[in-house]
């Protein structure tokens, strides 16, 4: 038993309250090193009467480690605990300070979860687990009101550039909600809709005003109501890391310099404000002089932005915020932001844009979730780029699951492309079989999946500006087979609850190979998902209880033999198997 690999610490993702009654305990060990693991737990004030051994199960693995977990219900919300590690006949007890061959006689040196305080529990909005999001870049989705077109607007469908306009607006979204309802979408994430100078609107001029080229507050109220009437939630994009150069306080600083009352609203290194050798004398997003960084430690800035966050939830009824460049804003601001938003709407979804491991923001005091780009990278590396074999992919997914409390994984925002990346079809070099295979994993995995507008009808495009082309509304030019695939995939996810909130365990993950199979399980319900990430047909054989199974995607029926199910899949084929009665 390699004790150097064994790891646990209180709180964070290792010991946390899942609800008012339950504490999740996790333990890391070398892969395939332990045959069993137990939590040794009880109340410190009534140890002899309450102590028990709670079996742990292996819930995830990566290339180096296994991750074990159990759920403990403390009798009085207090918990002292250690661990019993087994490797065949060998038994080791783990306390807070050391390892021992003898069972601890008293709880004094054990780990401690002092008390399940309701205020500390990481609550996430339940509705997100069942939601299918659709990302809309408003300027390129649909032009519903030519009367608000910007000057120099181009005919719809032209070549996208970083600085051109095609007249997309919020009325255009209202006009095409039937498309989203037919697809099965139940959530929309809008990139910024507030007044700005660019087509992408990440350079906010006025956080309290809808961009006139998109509509006005009455338009957005009609949009939100129309969405809610269809069971579609609405997520707005907030750019609180930086403003635009035309934001009134920054204009004042540009004009008055150190004499401006707003000089401390920004992070100015040196006056006058200028750009030398491509580097502004004030902090910005990247080195973009159009996007000066806001000083969120300034009480006036903080009050202004928190009022913005509250206003759009209360006045318009949006269902949450996506937070741009979230990792460059101070943690204290995000804690106050969460308090403000959750007070306005306890069910609001708070989603941070962070592209990497995000544990510091996912402890229940800041975000509900982050845009899950590590998930994106893993799926693309397996299906599209060929950088991961099936085992490597399963290992990366296991590592990702072990990083965060279960609540955060349950509402993770899982995307395969966005306005910041090449489109999925382009990454797949036009191979729609690979595109479908990647989407199939996305929709049969936990968290909430998001479709980038137009993916469902075959829109392609390279990195910005190519990925921001106009939506195609001519049905003769839409890929109807792809649309039918996404519609079916969404329907299957809605039908089969284990795909949304069930546990995941990998049944096949070939080392050096392409076959992947996993089980999603919720209570007694089980769904088997099989993927063939290879350019020729292959047969996958998996253990399966029950006699008859049916593919929820294609309808084919299969029967088990000797407790196993053999399914032949075509090149880049898949099956989502549910047990017949």
Automatic annotation (TrEMBL):
Location of the Glycosyl hydrolase family 13 catalytic domain: 135-493
Residues making up the signal peptide according to the UniProt record: none
InterPro entries per record: GH (IPR017853), GH13_cat_dom (IPR006047), Glyco_hydro_13_lg-like_dom (IPR004185), Glyco_hydro_b (IPR013780), Ig-like_fold (IPR013783), Malt_amylase-like_C (IPR032091), O16G_dom_2 (IPR045857)
Gene3D superfamilies (alphabetical): Glycosidases, Golgi alpha-mannosidase II, Immunoglobulins, Oligo-1,6-glucosidase, Domain 2
Top-level taxonomic group: Bacteria
Keyword Methyltransferase: no
Keywords associated with the record: Glycosidase, Hydrolase
Ranges annotated as spanning the membrane: none
PANTHER family, sorted: ALPHA-AMYLASE FAMILY MEMBER (PTHR10357), MALTODEXTRIN GLUCOSIDASE (PTHR10357:SF210)
Family: Belongs to the glycosyl hydrolase 13 family.
Protein name as catalogued: Alpha-glycosidase
């Amino acid at each position: 038993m390699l004790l150097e690999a064994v790891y646990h610490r209180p709180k964070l993702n290792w010991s946390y309250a899942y609800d008012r009654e339950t504490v999740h305990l996790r333990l890391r060990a070398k892969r395939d090193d332990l045959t069993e693991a137990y939590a040794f737990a009880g109340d410190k004030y009534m140890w002899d009467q309450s102590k028990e051994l709670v079996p742990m199960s292996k819930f995830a693995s990566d290339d180096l480690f296994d991750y074990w977990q159990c759920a403990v219900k403390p009798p009085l919300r207090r918990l002292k605990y250690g661990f019993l590690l087994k490797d065949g006949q060998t038994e080791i007890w783990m306390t807070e300070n050391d390892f021992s061959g003898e069972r601890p006689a008293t709880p004094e040196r054990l780990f401690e979860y002092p008390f399940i305080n309701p205020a500390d529990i990481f609550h996430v909005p339940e509705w997100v687990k069942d939601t299918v999001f659709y990302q809309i870049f408003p300027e390129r989705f649909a032009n519903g009101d030519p009367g608000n077109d910007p000057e120099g607007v181009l005919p719809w469908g032209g070549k996208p550039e970083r600085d051109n306009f095609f007249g997309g607006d919020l009325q255009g979204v209202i006009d095409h909600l039937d498309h989203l309802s037919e697809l099965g979408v139940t959530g929309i994430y809008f990139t910024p809709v507030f007044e700005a100078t660019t087509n992408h609107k990440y350079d906010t001029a006025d956080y309290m005003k809808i961009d006139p080229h998109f509509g006005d507050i009455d338009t957005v109220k009609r949009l939100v109501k129309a969405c809610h009437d269809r069971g579609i939630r609405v997520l707005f994009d907030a750019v609180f890391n930086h403003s635009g150069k035309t934001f009134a306080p920054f204009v004042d600083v540009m004009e008055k310099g150190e004499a401006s009352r707003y000089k401390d609203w920004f992070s100015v290194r040196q006056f006058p404000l200028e750009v030398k050798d491509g580097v502004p004398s004030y902090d910005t997003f990247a080195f973009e002089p159009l996007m000066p960084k806001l000083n969120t430690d300034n009480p006036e800035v903080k009050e202004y932005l928190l009022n913005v966050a509250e206003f759009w939830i209360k006045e318009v009824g949006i269902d949450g915020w996506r937070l741009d460049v979230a990792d460059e804003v101070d943690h204290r601001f995000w804690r106050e932001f969460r308090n403000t938003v959750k007070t306005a709407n306890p069910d609001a979804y708070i989603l941070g844009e962070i592209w990497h491991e995000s544990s510091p923001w996912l402890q229940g005091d800041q975000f509900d979730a982050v845009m899950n780009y590590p998930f994106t990278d893993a799926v693309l590396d397996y299906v599209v780029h060929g950088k991961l074999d099936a085992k490597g992919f399963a290992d990366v997914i296991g590592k990702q699951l072990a990083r965060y409390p279960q609540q955060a994984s349950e509402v993770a925002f899982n995307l395969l492309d966005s306005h910041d990346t090449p489109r999925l079809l382009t990454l797949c070099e036009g191979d729609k079989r690979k595109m479908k295979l990647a989407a199939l994993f996305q929709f049969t995995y936990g968290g909430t999946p998001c479709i980038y507008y137009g993916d469902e009808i075959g829109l392609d495009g390279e990195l910005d500006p190519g990925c921001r082309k106009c939506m195609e509304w001519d049905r003769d030019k839409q890929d109807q087979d792809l649309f039918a695939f996404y519609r079916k995939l969404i329907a299957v996810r809605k039908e089969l609850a284990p795909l949304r909130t069930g546990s995941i365990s990998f049944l096949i993950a070939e080392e050096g190979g392409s076959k992947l199979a996993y089980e999603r399980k919720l209570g007694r319900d089980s769904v088997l998902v099989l993927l063939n990430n290879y350019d020729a047909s292959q047969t996958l054989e998996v253990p399966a209880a029950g006699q008859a199974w049916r593919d929820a995607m294609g309808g084919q029926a299969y029967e088990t033999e000797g407790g196993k199910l053999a399914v032949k899949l075509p090149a880049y084929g898949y099956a989502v198997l549910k047990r017949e009665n």
